Amino acid sequence: MATRTDAPTRREQILKEAARLFAERGFHGVGVDEIGAAVGISGPGLYRHFAGKDAMLAELLVGISGQLLTGAKRRLAEAGGGAGPEAVLDSLIEGHIDFALDDRPLITLHDRELDRLRDSDRKLVRQLQRQYVELWVDVVRQVHPTLAEPAARSAVHSVFGLLNSTPHLGRRGVLPGRGATAELLHRMAKGAFAAAAPVEG
């Protein structure tokens, strides 16, 4: 994830390049040899780290779902009782924006290749995602008490769709700077939640 500061392991390097190549050319359009070449090892050498491409795909998609949930829980724990719900929501949005800007290939990969996972892995991804959504729903409803639970859940999914649109925003060089893009996405996410909430009257 973007918060990591230590050097990536070889396994992490392989996963990063696999995600990039799968996103660019599709899962079936990439061979093991190409992934190996991208990290400077032979294709067969990859089998010391992964059983095959299917295992890489599963680790990528299960892994990012788990990381998002863990990161959100950490942000809630760090807020403790001292931060108001508005600040907690801001922190959750910031965390998801970091993912959306820094892990764009994984968004494309999820959209295109989730159905290729084994049933057990796909169910695990869905389970982690549901937990992540419900965590957001609770915080959003604290910020916007007039928002009923089903509407809050729909709003959260809609905001995820907005934030996860980054692969479609154009090449990195065409976008505004990272800071400006992050600020824009943050304002839009907050605005979407505010617009979803009925006005108390």
The total strand number stands at: 0
The largest sheet, given as strand count, sense and whether it forms a barrel, is: none
Shape: elongated
Unreliable residue runs = 1-5
Strand-pairing-aware structural class: mainly alpha
Assembly level: single chain
Number of helical segments with 4 or more residues: 8
Helix/strand order, N-terminal first: HHHHHHHH
Average pLDDT taken over every residue? 90
Radius of gyration: 18 Å
Amino- and carboxy-terminal Cα gap: 43 Å
Tell me the fraction of residues in β-strands, as a range. under 5%
Helix content: 55-70%
Strand and helix map with partners:
Layout: H1 10-25, H2 32-39, H3 53-79, H4 85-102, H5 104-113, H6 119-143, H7 149-163, H8 178-196
